[in-house]
Predict the 3D structure of the following.
Amino acid sequence: MNTYNMVKQEFIKKWITTLQTLDSSVEYPSNVTERKNAIRLSSDIAIAATRSGSTVWSRALISRTGNKTTKPHMARRILRKARSRMKNRCSTLRRSGDFTARVGVRKRTELLKSLVPGGELIDDKDNLIRETLDYIVYLRVQVDVMRTLAAVDSVTGNL
Amino acid sequence: MMKGALETDRLLNSMDMSVLERQRAYLKYHNPSFDFPLAGFFSDSPMINGFLGTPGLDIPVIYSETTVEVCDPSLSISPEDITGSGNFKKRKFDTETKDRNAKKMMMMRNKEEEEEEEEEEKSKITEQNNGSTKNIKKMKNKAKKEENNCSNDSSKVTKELEKTDYIHVRARRGQATDSHSIAERVRREKISERMKFLQNLVPGCDKITGKAGMLDEIINYVQSLQRQIEFLSMKLSVVTPRIDIDMDDIFTKEVVSTPMTLIPPSHGIVGSGYSHEMVNSGYLHFNPMQQGDTSSDPLSCFNNGQAPSMWDSDVQNLYGSLGV
């Protein structure tokens, strides 16, 4: 019954696969920033794969990371089902700055669209909110798992 | 159960309810055993687990380009395993078709079905990629009206598609009967319901009314989650110079459902020991989350290991607003 934990386990499995692929690659980055990017990328792919294609954000995330990664075959291996034909038009994150109430709903929805991967492709506000909701839950999964990993690392004193 | 039926009957007759409430009452009336995940959701505390169990999260294929004609032979509800109750409701509804056929009721009914199936589907999360499930969802989506007509025409879910029936709408007192405005009303109610979901999901959203403010909160939350992920991946990249994970070890561990074994901290470091650590500690951490209280969730993780670092304040602020 515990679907949240099940999602987490799914995510972990997929993420481990990704990390292993990353690890076995020849060009494993030694620089911290590179490593961080690789970890982030792998985790994004894994979380999108866990959601696996029935939401806009997961497909957009896959296509976006597919563009960025130097190893498209890695992404393809993990994501057997996700054949995204959606062009990724998601740009960089826009900081909200000082939105006051008078700016209103429109600007905020645009900002939300820029945050949620694939959000810009959604016209219907109704669906945008649904996507955001789903995306939030999966973000939480990612955060929880990563936090657990990080905690483990400190506990074991792994360095 | 009787009391429930009477109560819902009373609800049905009242004219001052929102359409959604009316629909729910209607469904309850006909399906007294049907457990309303939405109702349960609103009465519970906003736990992640409970929330995930509710429908509306597992988003169906909304963006399928094909507006699938319902009652397509390939789509007819043959996967009875998943949609058994869905079928049941359709047939039952069919017999009651004569009385009060509000259009919104039908749409809401379908929404309920969809949500119920979403809930079931969510619980079998590994079957997400089940083709038949996807078909069901596609069918649910745009072709609600066709589905209504279908169930009107025949006594069981059939394969023909006929748009012969008009959908009769019962307007509320003092509101326009214009089809556009009714559709608009439905849409608005859906949106407001979703906003309610989001309120329960995003911490600290209860006090805020109005779309702009809530959207603000949602945006902040998404941004902070994304930032957390950045921080965490940076942290992970610092702490683990080499990620050496033994797959077999992990999968054997996964068989164990709820391990409560305590790992002595002096256990192995890199290599297979690492995976052992990770998985078991992972499960260790999962267990408190199970009972949880999402608010105590991250903090318990922190307490298990380490001194909180700078970025933890970010998280603690976030969860502090939950109002523990």
